[in-house]
Design goal:
By secondary structure, the chain is α/β, with parallel strands linked by helices. The chain folds into two domains: about 230 residues, Lambda Exonuclease, Chain A; about 50 residues. It has eleven helices and eight strands. Strands 1, 2, 3, 4, 5 and 6 form a six-stranded mixed beta sheet that branches. Strands 7-8 form a two-stranded antiparallel sheet. Helix 1 crosses helix 2 and helix 7 packs across helix 8. It starts with 9 loop residues before the first strand and ends in a 25-residue tail after the last helix.
Length: about 375
């Protein structure tokens, strides 16, 4: 495919999020259409989601707890797990989540009516500046109508990480879901975007994290979607190494892992491997030395405080405690978050004042992940 010929007329939140996390993975998955085996975390999450869809599809008579658990057992897939121990760990975790969810349901079932599960949606978007059009599609785990008349969007999470309220308030996925509900049911009792309740249900913790969206936030979300689409169309699919690499199914073809998966090992490869091993040994020694230095500094600080002095002498030199002032600056990440909440014209003024990003390379040492059961987190 030649440059500048890629036109994105249809996409999804999953695709956009994959591109944000790693453009190289996006290319493998959505452009090259290379299939990769699903991770055990993904399989586990899918089985829990399927079971909850079954549970809420039997309205008005909901399944019993035994029926719920039996459905999970009958549809469980052990093939993706490395051994029986790992299989048991994940299966037991699923049973625990479903039992907790059933108790939550019994306490709250009179407060809502399920409108839809696994609700597919399409949002037609038009860029006001370029008049370009794109369809944003996806699927919502569950949509309820609360006894108060409010519409609630529920997204099940099987991960162990519980995000902060700030992260939920700016989550792009929920902004898209809010647009989807408004687009799908424009004639419902919902009069404004802020009437739609958006909730993450963290099944491991039994916690529900809710948020809402304003019109300004949703306009900013549309702009963010177009920015990601524009980034995709630039066709700069560089790999972005991160902790997510441990769960990626494309490691055997990814350029960042090419050296590890070489079929033929050369003499230079062996030399490089020895150098890397030596590098880690020295890095560990430095780490131990730094730890010892920190301990010595604490002792010296305590002595200076006790004697009410600012300099202490040894046989080979002396150490002086100096007062220094670091000029305060802006937290760039927080500043960028604040800018995103501003009206578009003001955002563009900030962008025009921003200096061009400069790329530079550093060496970062990362230990290989040890083999064993991975945590229920992705």
């Amino acid at each position: 495919m030649k440059k500048s010929q890629l036109i994105i007329a249809r996409t999804s939140y999953s695709a956009l999020e994959t591109f944000r996390q790693c453009p190289q993975k996006f290319k493998f998955q959505y452009i090259d259409r290379i299939k990769a085996p699903k991770s055990k975390e993904a399989v586990f999450g899918n089985k829990v989601h399927e079971t909850l869809r079954f549970f809420h599809s039997k309205y008005p008579v909901s399944p019993t707890l035994d029926e719920l658990l039996n459905y999970f057992k009958d549809n469980w897939n052990s093939e993706c797990f490395k051994n029986q121990e790992e299989d048991i760990i994940y299966f037991s975790e699923g049973i625990k989540m479903l039992k907790n969810y059933y108790q939550y349901y019994l306490k709250n079932r009179n407060n809502f009516t399920v409108l839809d599960t696994e609700a597919r949606f399409e949002i037609p978007l038009k860029n006001p500046e370029t008049n370009k059009e794109c369809v944003l599609s996806g699927k919502i785990d569950r949509i309820d109508k609360l006894s108060s008349g409010t519409i609630e969007v529920i997204d099940y999470k099987t991960t162990k990480k519980l995000p902060s309220q700030v992260e939920a308030d700016k989550d792009l996925q929920f902004s898209i879901y809010c647009l989807a509900v408004f687009n799908r049911w424009p004639n419902l009792a919902v009069k404004d975007y802020e009437d739609i309740k958006l909730s993450f249900h963290y099944l491991k913790h039994g916690e529900v994290l809710s948020t809402k969206r304003t019109k300004v936030q949703l306009e900013n979300a549309k702009e963010e979607v177009w920015q990601r689409i524009y980034g995709i169309e630039q066709e700069k699919f560089k790999p972005i190494p991160s902790a997510l690499c441990d769960w990626c199914g494309y490691k055997n073809i990814c350029p960042m892992w090419k050296n590890l998966h070489k079929e033929q090992i050369t003499i230079d490869d062996e030399k490089a491997k020895k150098v890397v091993d030596e590098y880690f040994q020295l890095k560990e020694q430095n780490s131990q030395n730094n730890k010892k230095l920190n301990q010595l500094q604490e002792i010296i600080e305590a002595y200076l405080n006790k004697e009410k002095i600012e300099r202490v002498f040894g046989s080979n030199g002396y150490i002086t405690r100096l007062a220094q002032i670091r000029k305060g600056g802006y937290d760039i990440k927080k500043l960028e978050q604040i800018i995103k909440t501003l009206p578009q014209p003001i955002q563009k003024q900030f962008q025009s004042a921003k200096k061009s990003d400069k790329e530079y390379k550093i060496l970062k040492a990362s230990p290989l992940k040890k083999k064993g059961a991975a945590p229920l987190d992705k």
